[in-house]
Amino acid sequence: MLGKRSKQASRDGLANGGWIPSASLGLTVVCALVILAIVVQLYGDTRENVDYRCIVDGSPAGVAATENALISARVTLVPMGRLCTWHAANGGVVLDQSGWPLTLVFLGCSALAVAFTTYGALKRYASGLVPLAVLAAFWLGILAYVNV
């Protein structure tokens, strides 16, 4: 009787979505690490002053060799990083954008969090809301940082 009960309990745990709280926790940890990487990248891209970071990090190929080659610099939401606009040597404009790799990873993480949260909501698991709460807090922080 005891053996049947423990086997039944373990089967019910998986059959009723018992893996969702573990997957939700794992996804939250992965998203937290991605968030940390993005915060570090944003800090690296924008520390001191965005204009200063564009100049110090060097201009891309094709930029005019003048002292005032940098037209503008700003922090961007998508991709999460900075956009440096330079005068080109041929008279046009050269754009230098940072942040695409981590932004794409984070958007993938966001899609997974929405999927897990939706599944958790359908099954009525409160733990399914954890990844979405972490992502919402991050997006609100980024929106405040970028001043959108």
What features would you describe in this structure?
- This protein has about 150 residues and is an alpha+beta fold.
- Helices cover about 60% and strands about 15% of the residues.
- It has helices spanning about 1-15, 20-45, 50-55, 100-125, 130-145, and strands at about 70-75, 80-85, 95.
- Strands 1-2-3 form a three-stranded antiparallel beta sheet.
- A hairpin with a 5-residue loop joins strand 2 (about 80-85) and strand 3.
- Helix 2 (about 20-45) runs antiparallel to helix 4, helix 2 (about 20-45) packs parallel to helix 5 and helix 4 (about 100-125) packs antiparallel against helix 5.
- The longest helix has 28 residues, at about 20-45.
